[in-house]
Each structure stands twice: as structure tokens, then as C-alpha cells.
Amino acid sequence: MKTRKVVISTRGAFGLSPEATLELYKRGSGAILARRIEDVFLENGEGSAYRFDEQIYGWREYFSARKPLDPFQTYFSPDEKFVLTCPNIARDDSDLVEVVERLGTRSNDALSTLEVIEIPEDVKWYVQDCEGIEHVAEEHRTWHGKT
Questions:
Q1: Is 85 within 8 Å of 33 (Cβ atoms)?
Q2: Reported confidence tier of residue 80, pLDDT bands at 50, 70, 90
Q3: Which pTM does this prediction carry?
Q4: Fewest Cβ atoms closer than 10 Å to its Cβ: which of 33, 94, 139, 144?
Q5: Is residue 3 classed as helix, strand or coil in its secondary structure?
């Protein structure tokens, strides 16, 4: 039987570590949004609360602290020319699967425990979250009343 590999989080919300995000960026993954730093941190005029370099310094500290509740999973590229985010990635994305398999626990963010599972290739599936624990479920038909 042919199978497909899928990444799920067996603890906590799905999230990627900075190392995994950077690895996907280096591979040219289309799931990683790389925005120029100038577009994210706009140069403020006089009287602004923070100068451009102060904004970047503050965010660099924030990203490096790897705040566990960062909903955007946002990191700087190694050359600090881009801000990287991974808002949505197909769980069967071949690059994602390879990165999680290679990095193991280093691919987890502070809240997740990522695991690669195998399912039959011909199954219509989706990832379902049940109180922070994900599993793959097979799609099926449902009918609802007129309410």
C-alpha cells in the first residue's frame, strides 16, 4: 500500500522553530513569507516613539527570546534583510516533512511536539485539533438540518 507522510503536533498548537523556519526559507519553500525588513519596520519621522534601528533592535530581542505565544512565528533571516513568517503550510508538504524528519525535536516551537505520521495515499484527509492534540481524520459525508 502506498502511503503519504503528514506532519502533526501531538502536543500543543502546530508551530515551527526558528531553525525549521530558516531551513524551509533556505529551501525556497513557498509557504515561507519573506518580507523585506524595510517594508515591515517603516522609517518613522521625528517625534515617533521609536527610531527605525530601535524598532529592529527590539524585535530582534523579541524574536531571539522565542516567545512561546508568538502567533505569527516570525523570525529574521540570517542576513537580517528579511522578516520570515510561516502562516500556513500544507502538512504533507515534502519540504516540511523532510525538515521535521531531519531536525526531529529541533523543529518544534515552544508549544508544539511535531511528528511525521503515514496515512494511506488515497485517503481524503484533514488535520483535526482536539484540545491541542492533533490527529489526521478521514473526510466523510455529513448532513445537517435546516437550522
A1: yes
A2: confident
A3: 0.75
A4: 144
A5: strand
Q: What distance in Å separates the CA atoms of residue 4 and residue 117, rounded to the nearest whole number?
A: 8
Which contacts (CB < 8 Å, 24+ apart) does range 30-34 have? 31/86, 31/88, 31/89, 31/90, 31/93, 31/95, 31/96, 32/84, 32/85, 32/86, 33/84, 33/85, 33/86, 33/87, 34/77, 34/82, 34/83, 34/84
Whether the CB-CB separation of 96 and 89 falls below 8 Å is answered with yes
4's grid cell: 503519504
Residue with cell 492534540: 133
The predicted pLDDT at position 105 comes to: 95
